[in-house]
User: Fold these one by one.
Assistant:
Number 1:
Amino acid sequence: MIASTTPRSIHQSPDAAGYFGNYGGVFVPPELEAPLAEVRQAYEIVSRSHDFIEELRRIRKHFQGRPTPTYHAARLSKKLGKTQIYLKREDLNHTGAHKLNHCMGEGLLARYMGKKKLIAETGAGMHGVALATAAAYFGLECDIYMGEVDIAKQAPNVSRMQILGARVIPATHGLKTLKEAVDSALCAYVADPVNQIYCIGSVVGPHPFPMMVRDFQHIVGIEARGQILEMTGNLPDIVTACVGGGSNAMGLFAGFLDDPVELHGVEPLGKGGNIGDHSATMTYGREGIIHGFRCYLLQDENGEPAPVHSIASGLDYPGVGPEHCHLKDSGRVKYITATDKEAVEAFYVLSRNEGIIPALESAHAVAHAMRLARENPDTPRTILLNLSGRGDKDMDYMIEHYGTGDSFGI
Ligand SMILES: *Cc1c(COP(=O)(O)O)cnc(C)c1O
């Protein structure tokens, strides 16, 4: 695996067929089986290769700016009571979020496999930007498939991808959003799996992607564990992160799975518990198959993926990573929710009290930590949360809909 300190429990999962308990596996059309087997075999080799691991370490240090710091949010903590809140600052990772951790890993794997082009779909554009960055770094071509509707909505990210040298290819059928972009990207992959490699954006998709992306994100948990031990002399009481597909949460949790700490995944409850109003997959979903793997899935009455909503576009996915589903069933991780409204409050409170504007996705984890602190103001506990990204991308939206946030003072 990528880190020598990988705990044993991670080595044990998934099984050879890519299952974490009941979840995961490979549910793809026959044409994709051979290309996926090729990725699996290549990853098996490079994940044990000294050269690969050393090169990834160099990239993380000199290009991405790792390690990112862990930061004691002392002013915010003090206002809420005796809970001490610590932030793992993935917003300071190059390009402003944790996604580059797995995109650089996928890019390096592509180069080892002799691929010429990285391809993927993107919704709001964050995965597309991270992958376009990796492609530019490695001198690879990059095609990003994006729904025509999303292209119109996310102009700055489209420009970023194009400046980085990626081709942004519109998906023009159906609703012209993320689902159609996935269809187009997979279609393109099937057409040329020799020169191209499909790079997934979270711990989702068919085996080996959930395992591979977790391994690439594990660095977040390894760093944070060492940093908080050094800062406080102890492990935190609670470790928490937002869960969309689940990559930033899985990376952080992986560092603490064998420790006596509570792990909390925060799902987006959006506007409430009615279908279509939220994206709280593990809270309201039932087992189903999406994008080549089995997981908890938000479904309509016909078993089709349900429409989803979250104020944070990086969290609105009707499925979730298979390892999270297994960790929920085993009881090792507790999954709770935060609403749009709670995330909006946390967005302004963190900005005003710490000088850190969080991504709306990350603001869900901040909201949960604030709730825990308020519920137990007299209990001295330590909470470590993953500040998965910075909020620059959300500022225009927030100003337009909520103003400068003066009403959110604490
Ligand atoms: C994409 C994104 C997420 C959600 O993805 P996960 O795979 O669940 O981590 C969270 N935070 C930020 C900043 C993102 O860009």
Number 2:
Amino acid sequence: MIKRVPHCSHWGAYTLLVEDGSIVGVEPFALDPDPSPIIHSVKEWASPRRRVLKPLVRKGWLDKRENSDRSGRGRERFVEVDWDTVTGLIADEIRRVSAQFGNASIFGGSYGWTNCGRFHHASSLLRRMLNLVGGYTAHVDTYSVAAGPVILRHTLGNEDACNGKASSLETIAQHTDTLLVFGALTPRTAQSEAGGIGPHLVQSYLDKITRRGAKIIHISPLRDDLPEGTPADWWPIRPNTDTALMLGLAGEIVKAGRHDTDFLARCTSGSDKFLAYLKGSSDGVVKDAAWAAPITGLERQQIVELSRRLVDTRSMLSVSWSLQRAHHGEHAFWAALGLAAVLGQIGLPGGGVGYGYGSLGGVGAPMNLSKPPAMSQLNKPIDSFIPVARITDMLLNPGQPFTYQGETRTYPDTRLVYWTGGNPYHHHQDLNRLARAWMRPETIIVQDPMFTATARRADIVLPASTSLERNDLAGNWRSNYVLAMHKAIEPLGQSRPDFEIYKAIAEQLGVVDGFTEGRSEMDWIAYLYNQTRDDAAARHGFEMPDFETFWQTGHAVCPSTDQHTYLAKYREDPQQHALKTESGKIVLGSQTLDRLGYDDCPATPTWMEPVEWLGKAASPRQLHLISHQPAGRLHSQLETGPASLALKRNGREQARLHPADAQALGILDGQTIRLWNARGACLATAQVADSVRQGVIVLPTGAWFLPTGEDGLDISGNPNVLTVDIPTSKFGQGCAAHTCLVNVEPYQGSAPDAMQAYDAELAELTA
Ligand SMILES: Nc1nc2c(c(=O)[nH]1)N[C@H]1C(S)=C(S)[C@@H](COP(=O)(O)OP(=O)(O)OC[C@H]3O[C@@H](n4cnc5c(=O)[nH]c(N)nc54)[C@H](O)[C@@H]3O)O[C@H]1N2
Ligand SMILES: Nc1nc2c(c(=O)[nH]1)N[C@H]1C(S)=C(S)[C@@H](COP(=O)(O)OP(=O)(O)OC[C@H]3O[C@@H](n4cnc5c(=O)[nH]c(N)nc54)[C@H](O)[C@@H]3O)O[C@H]1N2
Ligand SMILES: [Mo]
């Protein structure tokens, strides 16, 4: 008999068909008009092949604990231990580091997407446990957005505009005449939503926008950042130069005297400084179309015409998160705000600026108004943190200062790293630099269902079960569905649900009651669901089904709105609805940044050359690397599932480049190529296509890192052996992955199949 099991992942809801304890099929969620193909890859989780199946400890660490030879990480064999032993070892280690060095020496800031379940949420639960025993060093912001929220908190008073609370896509579909898309607006990325998603709606909004006849100008190095079938003018901009285009447009408008002086006076502060910069009175350079054209590689006359159109029509700027994942990313977001302020349409339906449309499926979608389900991490006993992408800097520079949001703080002396639900050997930049820093901590614990590159480089590996093997629920503040995640199969090997793992450690640490609060798995799931349900009833008079009905149906709808115009109230009455900024207004000239005087984050939206960009290429043979999100998987998850494998060729990730570049470099479609720079090298299969701008090469993230040979050539195609590990600026300290120049050449040597080599490495480590 086939059992139908409702379940959910970050890429959407689905029904698992289960027979005799194994998954025999996957059906999309009936209410989803545009389901993600990745749902069919989840069967891969049920295969033991690349799973961690038992608790393991590296031989050298088991012998010598904190005095082990750490160069054994990733090379030395693992030894099997039982659960009691391993949780005891971990409890001892937490106690030792806490007593000898203090809890700031425990890095629990472990970043990563884990699975979408809100209860077994691996990193929240880790923090919950550590907060009961004195705390840990945390992280702030995300790899997704860091420069962005830092500058928006400063200039708009909060990060709503980039966190799903800008104007809804429905209002854009209804009112916008000119839509400027910077970066992407595509189901490729909108497939995913942190915490799951019910219906995928981005394509239907694009269809609506198209039907109404809005003019779309698409500004991106990649044509298919807008899906085929969405009519748009494609402006293939040089990567990392959008700030110059935005400022050129704004300057052109100011030059024509068509800027909204009333809006600037009523709703912004420091606009005199901004206008002075645009007019060139501060630096002698007028920012206009003629100035922006050679920087961006776009046509001067087109920029002039667009600047007029923006003033003449209801205009909306859509800015992808990717634009701030680059050196000086703060200023790409700020310049967009500056341009929108000059246009003066902020707060009008279909006008203004919003960040992250399409970056996740819930951004701009009907906004959940109730409190989403989330596990409490309890109170933090200590206040130690790093900006999330400064992990390597932290490990290399204990005791050294760093700046963040205008404050100066100190990196802790990290002795113990506990990583769960994330894969830094996928997500961090300059992986060879991370590998050097990885030698520093005395102990590294990794908890993951899969034997990732990070797990291989741990001292202790804990087998977490996947969401398929336990009950949970999905939901988040951006999407208006709560989704049931029923257990489909038994845990593989000796793996355990995350909650059970921490519970066992908490027991050894003497804090189990505080950790569980006496609730079981199903108690917690009902408790979290009822928090959302009660909140919906109390604040919105909205009746959600009772828990049993929800659990049986598999989903429940939350109160939501698709009619939201960002800053509408503020626009009407800026005094009454003052923003939480230094002036109470939208900041275009910042007194704080003026005082701080950072050379890489000036006090008004400013174009600065990034460390690496086409304007600095040593020769025409150097290309700008865009390492964007993979279409067929979520980051490194389900890398070996069918949706991911379908986009590989010859067993490797594909790197897309323009036919003219391919010809100049002697590269043929389908050929193995080597991408390299001073930081590292990797292989990929060349895909020659004119959908990418000349001078740009695109290699998606997420291939399973597999360095080989003396020089560490990565044979899987992981772009993070190439990317720069620098902060976006001293102010935001964000990830700058999209800033990167590479050299590319046909690969002459022979290279093994990446997956076979990956499996062989695993077999050796666990022999
Ligand atoms: N070059 C470049 N690099 C980038 C980016 C880029 O644009 N360019 N983007 C960055 C961005 S935006 C992000 S968000 C990061 C993503 O980086 P990560 O979030 O680290 O990537 P994932 O592959 O999703 O890692 C999640 C891990 O959780 C594990 N996991 C899944 N389910 C469970 C579970 O139930 N329990 C436990 N304990 N573990 C589980 C998975 O097996 C996987 O190893 O990458 C960043 N890196
Ligand atoms: N299928 C799938 N979906 C995902 C993810 C995934 O791993 N897989 N990851 C999710 C996560 S964690 C996040 S944070 C979001 C990220 O969402 P985004 O940041 O929007 O996604 P990216 O793919 O990094 O970048 C989108 C596009 O921006 C363009 N771009 C890059 N640099 C520039 C630039 O300087 N100027 C301009 N104009 N364009 C530029 C690139 O062509 C790229 O294709 O995606 C989410 N969605
Ligand atoms: Mo992200």
